[in-house]
Amino acid sequence: xxxxxxxxxxxxxxxxxxxxxxxxxxxxxxxxxxxxxxxxxxxxxxxxxxxxxxxxxxxxxxxxxxxxxxxxxxxxxxxxxxxxxxxxxxxxxxxxxxxxxxxxxxxxxxxxxxxxxxxxxxxxxxxxxxxxxxxxxxxxxxxxxxxxxxxxxxxxxxxxxxxxxxxxxxxxxxxxxxxxxxxxxxxxxxxxxxxxxxxxxxxxxxxxxxxxxxxxxxxxxxxxxxxxxxxxxxxxxxxxxxxxxxxxxxxxxxxxxxxxxxxxxxxxxxxxxxxxxxxxxxxxxxxxxxxxxxxxxxxxxxxxxxxxxxxxxxxxxxxxxxxxxxxxxxxxxxxxxxxxxxxxxxxxxxxxxxxxxxxxxxxxxxxxxxxxxxxxxxxxxxxxxxxxxxxxxxxxxxxxxxxxxxxxxxxxxxxxxxxxxxxxxxxxxxxxxxxxxxxxxxxxxxxxxxxxxxxxxxxxxxxxxxxxxxxxxxxxxxxxxxxxxxxxxxxxxxxxxxxxxxxxxxxxxxxxxxxxxxxxxxxxxxxxxxxxxxxxxxxxxxxxxxxxxxxxxxxxxxxxxxxxxxxxxxxxxxxxxxxxxxxxxxxxxxxxxxxxxxxxxxxxxxxxxxxxxxxxxxxxxxxxxxxxxxxxxxxxxxxxxxxxxxxxxxxxxxxxxxxxxxxxxxxxxxxxxxxxxxxxxxxxxxxxxxxxxxxxxxxxxxxxxxxxxxxxxxxxxxxxxxx
Length: 723
Description:
By secondary structure, the protein is α/β, with parallel strands linked by helices. It contains 25 helices and 20 strands. The protein is elongated.
């Protein structure tokens, strides 16, 4: 059942913000350390006002409620593109409406508040921004509010929308009451000169399918009849189907279906450019300014199970949109000879922000990136990176920075260069294993936080704790934490499959932490503690299999006072760990240290004892109260092709097991390795055998793995195995 969407009263919000600031040095849960006051060198002038930084938040979920606007402002956003409003303000929004696991999709397109409520939220945010600026010692918040309206001329001309626009341009009728509401908590707000004009700037957003003639008619009305600064938002479909799909699907590799209808009902490039030139010419005769915003989201076919099946289409944004929007920005700049200002929104993040500024695209707004872990605090790094880039360039103003980055050739040169290389940047390509840090754990009302890495770990290790302890120079304490749920840190610190790294939140910033490697560090820098069994409970347990499962079961049972005995068919402990895994992946010492724990706990071990030959389950049931089966699945995969059972064909596990056991192998004169991970299979082969010429017509590699590809027509080829 849908819950009512109710904004917080201004008095409550002001009390929440300023009381928290005074008592905790946080605002809306954001620590003071994450507040970002832009350096003076980032400032510029926009529509006659100071814009303290060319960074903002795009119309969307971050600019509908006043507290979201406040949060973004505190972290550095100074250009606030308010949530798009329209006359249809009682729409039903599908739930969920945003999916931001990696690239982002949404199926919502307008405000969830009444027009009058939207104005109240923007007014409240305006007063609170000025009050907070005063609180932190700023004379001018350096903030620009931009309205976003849609979606047709008839709706914009409706009296209610007209009242909204008029109130945003002159809020003196409502401003005093808002100031008094905040003054109950922060009396100094009465002494601040707060402008009664919240905004004199509109970004026009039109529905997909709106023809250029209609867009031009609406923009002319905004420029001439209403007299407001006007930007027109354009769609990425201006690239055309061949270019757009070529970049998105073929170059970047995304399996995203952009329907023909998206191109059929959207304006074509030449028509859109003619429209922009006409509007730019109109603005030349006016005090108002005209510009364009690139780009809108991209309409694609809904393939996400997150959204209701009734939603046939969804709208793509984020990193997958970035190369498309940047390419479009280059084409538009060339077509308009760089004469029309362009605001950018399309996959901006902290790593590309400074480059976008150098491209002459400003201001730059963001939405998708703030939906990732870290939220609004991510904005801080944008400005820090820009300041660092300006320092490196030896510049003290944005204009000088743009000039320096282009080598004096101007922002068009920088933009063209950036657009050319961005399509080959792996950061924007489809990931082989898409990011998804959400788990299956049920979220309780007061238990909704758990580290995704810990949730992904098969042993559910307390990863955050042992990472913190290692980081603070306490590897011994870290090992204590590890051993609570993992008795084989030597083994898992070297060869664990580490699914935790795929769910590491750092993936959404730069790269995952080396969780497995940090565990190995703790293992290698700690004196192994002496293990003691628990108080005996007089219960014997038979464990079949001395692999990681059997050894772990024996360890924990012994610690709890049980009497475990291990029965292993092979002549060594560890299962595949002690056999098939090559020494260069896991040295003997790491395994030995882990096995020593079992000996200290008094675990009895019977090697060379095969079930069904030396013992039966019935035998074990006679002498043991419980039986644990951990026999593993040590059988190599087959390809299902003719000849794979012929003499001389050996699977990888059997081969590696024999190498580890130092059994003699008759490999013959030539060796054909089928599989992409060639170094792991060939490394154990004696070095004298590596320098053979290998004539083979083909090789098979696993998807995404590099391996030598020999043309099928070739009957001989030479290849040397690498160390």
